[in-house]
Amino acid sequence: MDFGTIELDDQQQKFRFEIDALLDEHLAQRGPERRRFGPHELVDPVLVRKLADRGLLMPSWPIEDGGAGLDRIHRFIVDFELRRRGIDGIGSELVWSAVKRFGNPDLVEELKPKVASGEVRFCLGYTEPDGGSDIAAAKTRAVRDGNEWIINGSKVFTTAAHISQYIFLITRTDPEKPKHRGLTMFLVPTDWPGVEVSQMQTIGDEETNVTYYGDVRLPDRYRLGEVNDGWTVLRGPLDSEHDFAQKTDGLTESMGCWAMERTPTYAAFDATVEWARTAIRSDGSHPIDDPTVRLRLGRVAADIEWAMCSLGPLGRVAGAEVNVRAAAELCDIIGPEALLPYDADGAVDGGDVERAHQFAQATITYGGCVEVFRQMIAQHVLGLPRPQYPGSKNLVPARSL
After folding, report:
1. What are residue 149's DSSP bridge partners?
2. Between the N and C ends of the chain, which has fewer C-beta atoms within 10 Å?
3. Domains within the chain, CATH numbers bracketed
4. pLDDT in tens, 174-190
5. Is 146 strand, coil or helix?
6. How wide is the angle at C-alpha 146 spanned by C-alphas 145 and 148, nearest 5°?
């Protein structure tokens, strides 16, 4: 892996300054209440409009399609600056690749300009209340009735469903087939009769949703791909979500980088360093004067850099582990005031450290539980056999008594 930096030319630097100015101006106008926004999606409609006006919601699309026609470097600059501020709009892009490839042509043409303008956004309807990270174990049923489908079931952690217009929904259409075979994908409008979106607050001070489907009658035009071949449709967005390691034009974007930049850990680290430089102890010294404090901050900084440089499943696991470990270490360095929330007197840098600590606990589940990625590492990197768990069909029978 090449750890060398890429030097931006004058035009690329100018573009980055323009993006910086746009985002900084907007976030300054939003004020402190922006801390209440979750980092997963572009939830602020004003910012969505500003980005859409410049084609930056779909920056790689041609200008005539509502995009910005950016190359890989310029696209990375946009992504980096958004994520550096805790903003991530990746969901719609993940889904659109599948919609474009497998969707009804009329539906694709109808949605395309609305996706570019921000009028249409997608969310992921994967996880079920009793399914965990095993997406293929979906029980939400879709039964064909003429040219319609009747959908019943529920999904959990349907993040951004409350601000999305469509749910990229995986359903069970043939319970007799093997679990990866009897699945069909749909685009379900969130305002369709029978669809209910119920918001759920997390410990990380963000919002996700439970979505319910009660006798939802959906026309077949909203089906994506062939019946019972939903896993094929799902694999593109799922693989992209599971592996952000890409390298083109000399630029590598690791999943560890994605996992770190989209969390409040960066802000919490900067806030802790500033606290160490300015806080005054009882003996008149600053915490940064203590070599132990400097050592601990250095270890956190090294951890963050290590996680950011880790690719694929390794980066996903490293990012989650470092988020949890770093947030705890920063809180311990500062002491009790680190746990004051954002609206409390004396909160460190407005509560960035406390928010990072809350948010870090959930990073082990985003994009799939880290245990799934550990299995990927074991099987596909280390070449170990597939694990056998209690209750699996391949267990050795118990001895007769």
Report:
1. 144, 218
2. C
3. 10-88 (1.10.540.10), 122-241 (2.40.110.10), 251-381 (1.20.140.10)
4. 999 988 899 999 999 99
5. coil
6. 65
